[in-house]
Design a protein that fits this description.
The complex is a heterodimer of chains A (772) and B (83).
Chain A lengths: L1 H6 L1 H12 L31 H9 L5 E5 L6 H11 L3 E6 L7 H15 L5 H7 L6 H15 L3 E6 L7 H12 L5 E7 L7 H6 L3 E5 H4 L3 H10 L6 H11 L3 H11 L5 H10 L4 H12 L2 H10 L4 E2 L1 H8 L4 H11 L3 E3 L7 E3 L1 H29 L3 H10 L3 H17 L3 H10 L2 H4 L4 H12 L4 H17 L6 H12 L1 H4 L2 H18 L4 H15 L2 H13 L7 H17 L3 H18 L8 H13 L3 H15 L6 H16 L3 H16 L7 H19 L10 H11 L4 H8 L3 H15 L4 H10 L11
Parallel strand pairs in A: 1-4, 1-5, 2-3, 3-4
Antiparallel strand pairs in A: 6-8, 7-8
Chain B lengths: L3 E8 L14 E5 L2 E8 L2 H13 L4 E7 L12 H4 L1
Antiparallel strand pairs in B: 1-3, 1-4, 2-3
Classes of the chains: A mainly alpha (772), B alpha+beta (83).
Chain lengths: 772, 83
């Protein structure tokens, strides 16, 4: 099975491309298909009561950005929101969340697809960001908010079942979005528990409306209306009894209506129900299920293992051919089967009812039904659903097989957390028999910038698998493992990075064509830091000249940026500028937010500008390049960016800042096992700093003002009084005075005007450079 | 954290179909309440059970850690007897 998978990679590529046409068409590379039913707003059954008071409550809060419907299962949250959306003119983006949305890339891919369908191009930036290695989910969220602003018209975004998401990463990205919601967007979220998205703060700012169980519960009048609609003749007292017994729980009342509508004496039955001590849901589900014909009941029980389903899937799982008719009939007569579209294609059970049904199916029958569902989903290109069913059936072999075949779609779609989640789920026995699995997990872990030890542990598992199954160690696996190792460049071991990148390139040539652009860019970068500029340039040219290069956004932009840097260093200003501008324009078109790989191009442009006397622009570009390169862990790339920034600032006579950048770079360099040619560049910057200091005779302040003193200085420059400065900074007037004295001393100034002028000359008044 | 025996009580008596809903736990009903008792290995196990209770539409009444073998009695003296 495994050999077939490896051998089939080039064909897979074609298969994935076709699949892409219905999915993430904007990312350039084939990701996973969008799960359409996740974006379908459930249909409202005609038997559902129109709840005027709640609809009005939703209307009345039009100015509030976020509305949360928070109540237990069966409180009619989804139905209410759906009814409201139908009655409103605004466009609606609907997403039903599920536990796999713990991977923020999956969650935002679906939301961005919804926005893209609102207007072509509106979700493109976000989708591209999601498929870009190293881009945080928040970057995609920012892109998406920009898209919504561009749309201009009012949009309602419904986030159903928010409680199913629990990961910090996803909740953080949702909080990030809520805080940046454009004025034309309103979010309605349903959940069974208070989500950790900063509700307390939103409450305090009155930016939140909450509708809870107390409001969602049926009143006696509403229950009477519901029963009248079903032509159930119940006395007023007994309606009251029913509401009391169910505590107004909507699911209970709908089940009661289903049960009572076929009974001769509903009044007697309600009194019996009121007198029983059984749980409400248990009692009513029992009555409803007992009343069904055995064949229908069996259909319900066996299909309940399916999360969402089409008639065709039911046919495949149950071995029958009339599922379309059965589903049509059940959906018309019962509220517990929810149609997701108008064509009778996708259905799901009401969550609560589905859960109860599953209790009866039994541990023996369920796995086989799920395995059949997995097979059907595989055949229909529903990769994620297939994996979910296979896992729920406990079939680790099948999960492994699906991951071997589709892992690249997860990686290219940015679904790294999701991929890692599945691989972690597999028994270790399977991992050590399939080198590709630990290898792809290592690549995903490295791309997520997880601690180095985790990457190394997975690489060790891959090596273990290699020893056990050497025949499965294909060029594809080799290229993936070696390029992951080449990320050693991040840790500051340049020689090792060159070595591993070379092996990755050799393996890619030998038989992993689709990895070639990425590994060439990696090698070019390693050679650049090692100081072999001619080789680095040659490799980068090879990368950008490949026809598939633009599909590999990160590799392509990196290679163009390296060409810009090298040509700038070697004095070919014109071509350097052209490469840099091409890289930046491409990155912006694919992914409008700042993209870390574009850092190289910004630095290249900075060098060109510095050499052609455009010093303002040079500093701006260098600063941009340096900011994009900042990471939690020290990297060679960041040290290099700091050196370029220092060099540009020295050229601009901003000596104190340049000296500080140089110092920061030198501190990083000292911690690297092999920093390549960075010490040489640092020495050159140091030399030109000393030379400029000497010729300019520029007296540098001996001491840098502290951040608190700088804050006071900015106030002085803005023309504020000392008292005003104190109020603004929450410090006493005396403190302002002592900071001012220190500033005068450090700047060698005797007046406010002199201090401000001197600070300006030293570049001390620029905006703060703190990241983020 | 070592396993700890918990007793979760939900409103209403549950029929036999719910026995399979809480595998590894003893489910017993009396006097309009149902007790779900068993060893909980850690906090996420406990949270998972609470979510399960919610997704089945049951109303949680109480959660109590039991000291092993201190003779804490159930709603009807001996929970095991009715299950």
């Amino acid at each position: 099975m495994f050999t077939r998978v490896i051998g089939a990679h080039p064909a897979d590529w074609g298969h994935a491309r076709r699949a892409m046409s219905s999915g993430t068409e904007e990312t350039g590379r084939p990701g996973l298909r969008v799960i359409e039913p996740k974006l379908m707003p459930p249909r409202v059954h005609p038997g559902m009561l129109r709840r005027g008071r709640l609809l009005a409550a939703l209307d009345g809060e039009g100015g509030t950005p976020l509305t949360v419907l928070n109540a237990a299962a069966g409180y009619g949250k989804t139905t209410l929101v759906r009814s409201w959306c139908i009655e409103r003119p605004e466009a609606v983006i609907w997403i039903t969340l599920d536990p796999a949305d713990d991977d923020p890339a999956r969650l935002w891919t679906h939301l961005a697809t919804g926005v893209e369908r609102l207007g072509q191009g509106l979700g493109r930036g976000a989708l591209a960001a999601l498929g870009t290695r190293g881009a945080p989910a928040e970057a995609a969220v920012d892109e998406l908010m920009n898209g919504l602003v561009r749309h201009g018209r009012s949009v309602t975004v419904v986030v159903d079942d928010l409680h199913t998401v629990g990961s910090d990463a996803s909740l953080r990205s949702i909080r990030h979005a809520i805080e940046r919601l454009p004025a034309n967007v309103r979010v309605l979220a349903s959940t069974r528990s208070d989500p950790s998205i900063g509700l307390a703060r939103l409450r305090a700012r009155r930016s939140l409306v909450e509708i809870r169980a107390r409001e969602l519960a049926f009143t006696v009048e509403e229950a009477a209306q519901l029963l009248a609609h079903e032509r159930i003749a119940l006395s007023g007292d007994n309606v009251g009894l029913l509401v009391e017994r169910t505590e107004g729980w909507p699911a209970g009342l709908y089940l009661a209506a289903l049960w009572l509508r076929d009974l001769d004496d509903p009044n007697r039955e309600v009194r019996a129900f009121a007198g029983s001590t059984r749980a409400v849901g248990d009692y009513l589900t029992d009555e409803v299920l007992t009343a069904l014909a055995p064949d229908r009941r069996d259909f319900l029980l066996r299909t309940s293992v399916l999360g969402r389903f089409t008639p065709e899937l039911c046919d495949a799982v149950l071995g029958r051919s009339d599922s379309a008719a059965v589903l049509g009939e059940l959906a018309a007569s019962n509220m517990f089967l929810v149609a997701l579209d108008a064509r009778g294609e996708w259905y799901r059970y009401h969550h609560l009812f589905g859960e109860v049904l599953q209790l009866e199916i039994g541990a023996e029958a369920a796995p086989e039904l799920r395995r059949r569902a997995a097979t059907w989903c595989t055949a229909h290109g529903l990769v994620e659903d297939a994996i979910e069913y296979a896992a729920a059936a406990g079939d680790a072999e099948m999960v492994a097989e699906l991951l071997l075949e589709h892992h690249l779609q997860f990686i290219w779609g940015g679904r790294l957390e999701q991929l890692l989640g599945w691989i972690r789920w597999l028994p270790s026995e399977l991992l050590v028999s399939h080198p590709l699995l630990p290898a792809s997990a290592a690549a995903a872990t490295a791309a997520l910038a997880r601690p180095e030890a985790e990457v190394q542990r997975l690489l060790a598992v891959a090596e273990q698998a290699r020893r056990r199954r050497p025949e499965l160690w294909s060029p594809y696996v080799e290229a993936g493992v070696e390029v992951t190792r080449a990320e050693a460049i991040q840790r500051g071991d340049v020689a090792a990075a060159v070595e591993h990148a070379r092996r990755a390139v050799a393996a890619a040539w030998a038989g992993a064509d689709m990895l070639t652009v990425g590994v060439l860019a990696s090698l070019s970068q390693a050679l650049f830091f090692a100081g072999d500029l001619d080789q680095s340039r040659k490799v980068a040219v090879d990368a950008v000249e490949r026809p598939d290069a633009p599909d590999v956004t990160d590799g392509y932009v990196a290679a163009l940026g390296l060409l810009a840097l090298i040509d700038a260093e070697q004095g070919r200003s014109e071509s350097a500028e052209a490469w840099a501008r091409q890289a930046i324009a491409f990155a912006q078109q694919r992914f409008q937010a700042n993209f870390w790989v574009a850092s190289l191009a910004h630095l290249g442009l900075a060098l060109v500008c510095a050499s052609t006397d455009r010093l303002d622009e040079a500093e701006r570009e260098a600063l941009r390049g340096e900011r994009l390169r900042r990471t939690a862990q020290p990297t060679v790339g960041h040290a290099h960016a700091l050196l370029v920034l220092a060099q540009v600032r020295v050229a601009r006579s901003r000596l104190s800042r340049g000296a500080r950048d140089l110092q920061r770079a030198q501190r990083l360099i000292a911690g690297f096992p092999d920093p390549g040619r960075l010490p040489v560049i640092a020495a050159a910057v140091e030399h030109s700093l000393a030379a400029t200091q000497a010729t300019a005779g520029n007296r540098e302040p001996i001491e840098e003002p502290s951040p608190a003193e700088l804050a006071v200085l900015r106030g002085l420059a803005a023309g504020l009084s000392r008292r005003e400065i104190g109020t603004q900074l929450y410090i006493s007037l005396n403190t302002v005075k002592s900071h001012t004295r220190e500033l005068y001393r450090k700047l060698g100034a005797t007046s406010k005007a002199e201090a401000v002028a001197r600070a300006e000359g030293l570049g001390l008044l620029e905006p703060s450079e703190s990241p983020g | 954290m070592s396993p700890q025996v918990y007793r979760l009580v939900v409103n209403g008596e549950l029929g036999p179909r719910y026995a399979s809903a809480f595998t590894g736990m003893t489910v017993s009903s009396a006097s309009g309440k149902t007790e779900i008792t068993g060893a909980i290995i850690d906090q996420s196990h406990l949270h998972g059970l609470l979510q399960r209770i919610g997704s089945l539409g049951l109303t949680l009444y109480s959660v109590t850690p039991l000291d092993d073998g201190n003779g804490e009695s159930g709603l009807h003296g001996d929970p095991a007897a009715s299950s």
